[in-house]
Amino acid sequence: MRRLPWMLACLVAAGWLPALPSARGLESSDRSTIPFHTILELEQTARLLAILLDSGRAVVNDNQTLLDDPTKAHKGFTPEAFEGQLRDMFRGRSGINLEELAGGTLSPRSRHLLQELVTVSKQVIADAQAELNRQGAGFKGFIPAVFGARVSTRFTAVTGVRLKQTTLDPRNPANRPDSYERVALEAFADSAYPREKVISEMAANSSSLRLMFPLYATRQCLDCHGGPKGGLDRTGYPREGLTLGQNAGAISVLLPVGK
């Protein structure tokens, strides 16, 4: 693969620079036949998908105490309740109202994929109701990473767009990074790396765009992934010794050009 000028794309997608009307400058540097505005649209779509998946993870994270309460049989964490919190979380992080996608400026592809991700996320919550509402049981194992894995698997099957949670030292072997992901994760691990700045790249054959969106440890994450390093967490897995706000991996997106 050839490295895109992803820093420019990030600035445009974030609204810090205006989108260019043509792709000629990028085509000459990337030697790609894909118009520059199409590449920017792909990058924006991939970034928004990563933010939406992470927003769902954050909603699960915020409700972890409720979900693991053994005294409550019915938690009220229904697909509808989840969706309301997801919309609020995503709007706060992206500035986009999921209820007004039809009247917005996003591309048809972006709108379709975001709506599909919301639908799949709600399905995962719906299918988990029996385990979440099991009275007398405390920790149920339904954590942000588990939610993200279930959503990613279904979303990929439905849309052909691959979502993946990965880290340099994954607990789940299925999340092991490939060579491209490892390079990005090593960059994210540098404490000087700008927070939430993505890394993206077009495939050499211009068939797909890859994007890496960094994740950070929250207080809830530290319950299992914090210190002391090497000590066993409640799942019996050795703790990683992360600190609050430290990079905790990334969401990897592989978006085919034709999707």
Structural commentary:
The longest helix is centred in the N-terminal third of the chain and has 27 residues, at 36-62. The chain has helices spanning 6-13, 24-30, 36-62, 64-67, 79-94, 108-127, 129-132, 144-159, 179-188, 219-225; strands at residues 2-3, 162-166, 199-202, 208-216, 247-256. By secondary structure, it is an alpha+beta fold. A 5-stranded antiparallel beta sheet has the order 1-3-4-5-2, sandwiched between helices. Helix 5 (79-94) runs antiparallel to helix 6. A hairpin with a 5-residue loop joins strand 3 and strand 4. Helices cover 46% and strands 12% of the residues. Mean pLDDT is 86; it is low at 1-31. The chain is built from 10 helices and 5 strands; from the N terminus they run βααααααααβαββαβ. The protein has one domain (2-256). This is Tll0287-like domain-containing protein. InterPro entries: Tll0287-like_dom. Residues 1-19 form the signal peptide. Pfam families: Tll0287-like (PF11845).
Mean pLDDT: 86
Separation of termini? Answer: 20 Å
Question: Structural class per helix/strand content?
Answer: alpha+beta
Specify the overall morphology.
globular
Number of strands: 5
Query: Helix count?
Result: 10
User: Strands of the largest sheet, in order across it?
Assistant: 1-3-4-5-2
Low-confidence spans:
1-31
How large, in whole angstroms, is the Cα Rg? 19 Å
How many domains comprise the coordinates? 1
H/E series = EHHHHHHHHEHEEHE
- Percentage of residues in strands: 5-15%
State the share of residues found in helices, binned by percent: 40-55%
Query: Mind summarizing the main beta sheet?
Result: 5 strands, antiparallel
InterPro entries: Tll0287-like_dom (IPR021796)
Keywords: Signal
Protein name: Tll0287-like domain-containing protein
Pfam families: Tll0287-like (PF11845)
